[in-house]
Amino acid sequence: MGSQQTHLYGWALMIVAVFCQRGHGSCPEKDLEKREEEANIVLTGTVEEIMNMDPVHNTYSCKVRVWRYLKGKTMVNGEVLLDGGNKVMIGGFGDPEVCDNQVATGDTRIFFVNLAPEFMWPTHKNELMLNSSLMRITLRNLEEVEHCVG
């Protein structure tokens, strides 16, 4: 092997190593069925505003415009609903316990959430809390989630 080929081979190995590190190995994700089971509410929505940044824990909450409830709509009552009933506050972004947990304003995702437990009140009262990784909205992802919920 020439030195140029060896150099290219070395770069290829390094690139593969970087991609493998970013993959599932660094943050093990539960099966979709388990994630759906552990979330009392599953919804699709768009992040409208990022707020309540916690500089100590590097977590934040987002105001999310809800497009559709895939599960648990009846659990989301008047106190949780904002701005006329089509928005909710979701907390727990940046939580190291959740693999894919970062969003930007305008992102549309499938959210797996639960009502904030009482020990998180009053700071997170009437908030939904991220329960597992966000999912991008694709036809396949929607079909898979609907299959689990159904």
TrEMBL record:
<feature type="domain" description="NtA">
    <location>
        <begin position="27"/>
        <end position="150"/>
    </location>
</feature>
<feature type="disulfide bond">
    <location>
        <begin position="27"/>
        <end position="99"/>
    </location>
</feature>
<dbReference type="GO" id="GO:0043236">
    <property type="term" value="F:laminin binding"/>
</dbReference>
<dbReference type="GO" id="GO:0043113">
    <property type="term" value="P:receptor clustering"/>
</dbReference>
<keyword id="KW-0732">Signal</keyword>
<dbReference type="Pfam" id="PF03146">
    <property type="entry name" value="NtA"/>
</dbReference>
<dbReference type="InterPro" id="IPR004850">
    <property type="entry name" value="NtA_dom"/>
</dbReference>
<keyword id="KW-1015">Disulfide bond</keyword>
<dbReference type="InterPro" id="IPR008993">
    <property type="entry name" value="TIMP-like_OB-fold"/>
</dbReference>
<feature type="signal peptide">
    <location>
        <begin position="1"/>
        <end position="25"/>
    </location>
</feature>
<dbReference type="GO" id="GO:0005886">
    <property type="term" value="C:plasma membrane"/>
</dbReference>
<protein>
    <recommendedName>
        <fullName>NtA domain-containing protein</fullName>
    </recommendedName>
</protein>
